[in-house]
Structures are given as structure tokens and as C-alpha cells.
Recover the amino acids of this structure.
RNA sequence: CGGGCUGGCCGGGUGGCCGCCGCGGUCCGCCUCUGGCGGAUCGGGGAGGAAAGUCCGGGCUCCACCGGACAGGGUGCUGGGUAACGCCCAGGCGUCGGCUCGUCUUUGGCGGGUCGGUGACGGAAAGUGGCACAGAAACAUACCGCCGCAGUUUGUUCAGACGGAGUUCGUUCAAACGGAUUCGCUUCGGCGGACGGCGGCAAGGGUGAAAUCGGGCGGUAAGAGCGUCCGGCCGAGUGCGGCGACGCACCGGCGGCCAAACCCCACCUGGAGCAAGGCCAAAUAGAGGGACUAUGGGUGUCCGGCCCGUCCCCGGGUUGGCCGCUUGACCCCAUCGGCAACGCUGGGGCUAGAUAGAUGGUCACCGUCCGGCCUCCGUCUCACGGCGGAGAACGGAUACAGAACCCGGCUUACAGGCCGCCCGGCUU
RNA sequence: CGGGGUGUGGCCUAGCGGCAAGGCGCCUGCUUUGGGAGCAGGAGAUCGGCAGUUCGAAUCUGCCCACCCCGA
């Protein structure tokens, strides 16, 4: 994932946590907010409950891979948080969880009609 | 073939497609143009043996720096290795186990040798303190007990001594006297018992985690390392060997344990940590409060030197980039030295540098291990069947775990495998 | 990544070599018409885990585990 698609910095992340929309399923939590740019940015969070360092890194790598393949729409900042079961899920389950949430938030560019 | 670990090592492989981060080359674009930034493309590189826990030791950086004393902390057999260590190697001693030899009181004990494991392994003869309960007693003592002495009291025995009584004999009128005999009456003596006193002893009792060297013989009133033989332990005694820990012989001597209790001795030790520290950019609010120019600050305390004009607190801003940042006590090979850890010399090599954190996803084939319908072979059996081996559709497993300044160790986690060593069985 | 601290019944604490103590809570009984309060009695502890030192460890030492705090 290239640098322009990374979402960093405590201030922006706290702002999204305060003001952004929230949506979740059993494996993941999304928080998202429009950023006014011509591209989207993502931040991946896996806390200690997910597992040890190896498991947390693997979950974040797999999530980055699924987001890369998803064909998201530009203009949004999204925080993707892994929940407790994400360390035990395989790649296919994580991919379905991400596409499920993307469809529900209308982030996928393949959907022609979109909100706002 | 099976079991084990006390060592060393490996810890999935190949290929395709899509992605990530550095490095080098080429090209393109932009800028503040010996340079920097961004993009494309090609080449090549890209987590570990523990990267982990953060338990020790260093390098490096800052605290301006240095010396001495004290406090605090750490280490603790000896010698060596190392940059250093609480690590490693070799040795000593203790301890545990195997084998073997000798001896005895022979399902065992003791001693010697050898092999292997293991040990936070200085000092209890500087001082202070502790050892609950039980027990007489837990560190200087004696409850029961044993023995001696003299005493009081009592039993028993002997008839030995003195005395007494009875019987009888002799002499005699009688008595006295003498002899014999009986009693065991009194006292003494002998052998005991009880009581308290003085003194000696520490063998025995029974408690306890632990009871004042163990066993035999002698010795004694009773006993005791009191003496002696075998053994154990201690010695800041002598001699010899060893660099030394220590060993051997002789000599002297036998009242515990705890220092991961305080402590003593020897040695080491300033503090913080790459979020150290430095630079650039951006932004903001400080004539805020306090200590101070023979005082204040700089280290845990003090002293001495030295340095600084500033130091502390509160409030405000930034959360961007660059350096540090990977060539290092580095890795591999060979010679030589050394028992070894390791070292000298020579040659060759460059082997991650991310910044919320780079190795992933997917497909195919293979490898390893486990189970396994079934097939085949060997063997035992009359047979059913059992045991062992090979192949194999299929199914399952493929661990522990992610660099964050860098090294040396320790500890902990770990599927499976290779080598080595040890033990047992079988075959040659 | 680096540094520091704490683990004792369900909860909060004490204890710092030999007996695990207290409060709140829980259970039973008494009292009350009933409840609360009160009184009496009772249960409930691998002292975070594993080793070691010691005759003996919650306590001393080492290693491990969990949780909490601080740091440009």
C-alpha cells in the first residue's frame, strides 16, 4: 500500500473516532469519515486481544491485501479495527468480512449509485 | 531395532501471477539546480534460533569533567578466556547415579578406583541474633538415671566379736566360775530398701529437623576420646607436591545448625538511556512565579579542585523531515599456538534497515510426520488369527514465534528431523 | 521500544520465617406481623505459578505469568 493511502496521525484518527460513522460485523469494525481529497486513506488497528505480534501483523497484512483488491471509492478516511476472532480467521473469511462492510457503507466503486 | 540426553546443527523446498520496503543503474518531470523531491523501468537484496523475557555485561550518546572518603548496589572454590560479565573452558572439593575391586556382622554396610551428571561453592575460631511445638536440656545446662561418701530409718542374713537371756553339763550346799548348746533380744559388722544432703558422671531414657564423633576392646566406684584399633571431622601446626583451590604424611584436637538473618573479608561499581543526543522547517505567549552574584546550580552524601552565568516551577506551541542507522569485539575458510574456552597470522565476503512499522495473498508440484479401507512379503499357528516390514487411494498435522541503536551471554517457548554419545536387545 | 510497580477468601486491606487476621459481602438461627437494623453461630484461601535455601516459606532468593503506571 502506497504512502498516499496511509492514514496516520493521532489528531485525525481521534477526530474520526469522535465524528465518523461506525459499522461492524463479527470480525471487524469500520469507522469512516469524508476527507475532501481525491484519494482514500486507511488505518489498520489490531489490539492485544487479537493475538501476539505475529498474529497482529498477519491480520493487518491480510486486511491491506483485501482493501487493495476491493476497488474502493476515493474521498474517504477509514479506520479498520480487528476484533477478537480475527486472528483465527483465514484470508477468505477476512475478505468476505471486508467486502460485506464495504458494500454496507457504499465504499465500493463498483456500485454506481452512491450516497451524497 | 527400541529407549534416553549430558552435546552440536537444521528448522520447509521449487515455480507462476498480483502486491510492499531499502540499494544500484537508466530515463522522465518539477524545484530554491556540484544538489534535492516525485514517478517509470531494469538488476539485486529483504526477520530469528530464540528476533521473545528484559535477567546480567559492554560499545555508543548526553549529563562540562576529575580525584578522595562514606553510603548504597552487586559478585563470591581456584586458574585461565574475554571489551566485559552473574557468561564460557579446565581443574579442586562436596553430592548423586552406574560399573568395578577390596573388606565385613553379606536382600546390606564401609572404603578405594573409574565414568557421567550436578552444586548461588568465601567466613559460624570477630561480634549480634534466631532455632516455634515437643523435650530434662536447643547452647551451656542436668529431669529421670548411674556411682561414691557420711547420716537417719528399715528389712534380711550370718552366728564372727562384745553384751544379754534360756536349757544343760562339770565343780559346788548354793552362788560364782567354766564348757556345750539354743534364742536372734541389743549393738557392731555383711548384704540390701527408703529418705533427704554433699560430691562425681554424661553411658542409658524419650522428644525433636537437629542431642555434644560412630563401632570394637580396655579402663573405672560409676563413667567419659580417658587410652587404644578401624573410620569420620576440625586445625589461622610442621614437612613435601601443586601457580593455586587443594592433596598426602606426621603432629595436636573432637559442643550443633542458619550468613538466599544482620554482618565480616576480598573484588567490582557515577547516573540515565537512540523516545539517548544533534540539525532543519513550522507554530506559539511569556518583560508569569521563585532562587540567586563571596552565593546559586552542576553527583546519592560530604570534601577538594573545576565549570557556568544562570537554575527550578508554571503556562503556551509542534506531533513534520533529516542525521544517529548499520562495516561490526562482523561472517566464512586455512595455517599455527593451546587439554579447552579462545587467540595470532593470511585470504575471501558485505549479509534487513521499517517508522503504526516492509516477507503477504493465491495456485501448482514436492518434502517431513501421524492415522489409514486395501494389497504384497516374512514369521508363529492345524486353523481362526497374531506380530513385524513395504507400498498406497484418502484424511490430518507442518511448531514457537516478527528486527526497531548494535553486540556478548543467560533464561524461557518450540511440530519435526540429522549427526554425536549413553543404555538394553538381536544378528554378523 | 525503553523504564518502573503490584499480585493474600467474592471485594478492600493487614501480616513479612513457625497461628493466615480484620471489615464489607454470603449462609443459618434468634428478634419483628414482615423487611431493615441488631445479636449469635458458620462456611469460604493452591497467599499469581514453578523451582531453590531452611527442620520449617505468604514472608528469603531465582525464573516465569498476569495486570497497572510513566517516558520524544
Amino acid at each position: 500500500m502506497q504512502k498516499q493511502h496511509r492514514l496516520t496521525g493521532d489528531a485525525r484518527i481521534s477526530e474520526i473516532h469522535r465524528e465518523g460513522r461506525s459499522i461492524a460485523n463479527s470480525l471487524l469494525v469500520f469507522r469512516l469519515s469524508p476527507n475532501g481529497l481525491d484519494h482514500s486513506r486507511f488505518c489498520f488497528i489490531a489490539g492485544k486481544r487479537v493475538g501476539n505480534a505475529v498474529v497482529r501483523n498477519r491480520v493487518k497484512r491480510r486486511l491491506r491485501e483485501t482493501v487493495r483488491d476491493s476497488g474502493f471509492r476515493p474521498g474517504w478516511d477509514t479506520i479498520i479495527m480487528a476484533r477478537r476472532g480475527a486472528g483465527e480467521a483465514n484470508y477468505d473469511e477476512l475478505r468476505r468480512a471486508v467486502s460485506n462492510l464495504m458494500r454496507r457503507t457504499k465504499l465500493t466503486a463498483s456500485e454506481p449509485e452512491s450516497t451524497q
